[in-house]
Amino acid sequence: MHLRLAIISVLSCALLSACTERFVADPDAVREGQRIYLQECAACHGALGGGAGPASLGLSTIPPDLAGLKQRNGGYFPREFVGRFIMGRLEKDDPFSPMPDFSAVGLRHVYPNGGADGEVLETDFANLLDYLEAIQR
Ligand code: HEC
């Protein structure tokens, strides 16, 4: 009897962990993404992604909390949406909002000397998204 109970509990644990989707990012990618985030985004979105960073004083729209994207989206990190938003491929709620279109301005603080031709490199972009996914609460 006890053995059967033990088997059932082991099986349900295995099933539960198989069903719980967990984001496991490469720590180097996350670290690199954080470096980019701190230079390009933190002034507006806060050092920890909580929104309303020091540069948001006086902005017409308050930069939202980025660590709560998953929570606000039914427990799923909207990677596609975030990517499109950063690259200016989505219409903003406020067309005059100060959120930069990074496909136009590039990562100008990461490459102040115009490296990467002002373009956002695929790896930088992927690392940034990995970092944002990793900080979701
Ligand atoms: C100059 C300030 C500023 C900078 C720099 C900035 N943002 Fe934003 N961001 C905003 C504002 C303001 C909004 C709200 C715009 C809107 O909703 O139309 C916003 C919105 C967003 C959103 C949409 C969030 C939501 O809940 O809809 C994402 C994602 C985002 N920013 C990511 C980033 C990332 C990543 C960076 C750095 C690569 C960055 N932002 C840099 C000001 C900024």
Structure overview:
- With 137 residues, this protein is mostly helical.
- The protein has one domain: Orthogonal Bundle (Cytochrome Bc1 Complex, Chain D, domain 2).
- It is built from 7 helices and no strands.
- It has helices at 2-19, 27-40, 42-45, 69-72, 79-86, 102-105, 122-134.
- The protein binds heme C.
Descriptive key words:
mainly alpha, Cytochrome Bc1 Complex, Chain D, domain 2
Highest CATH level, the class: Mainly Alpha
What is the arithmetic mean of pLDDT?
Answer: 86
Write down the Rg: 19 Å
Class from helix and strand fractions: mainly alpha
Percent strand? under 5%
- In whole angstroms, how far apart are the ends? 41 Å
How many strands? Answer: 0
Largest sheet entry: none
Order of helices and strands: HHHHHHH
Residue share in helix? 40-55%
C-alpha geometry: globular
Low-confidence stretches: none
Number of domains: 1
Q: Treating each run of at least 4 consecutive H or I residues as one helix, how many helices?
A: 7
Question: What's the CATH architecture?
Answer: Orthogonal Bundle
- Superfamily at the CATH H level? Cytochrome c-like domain
List ligands, each type once: heme C
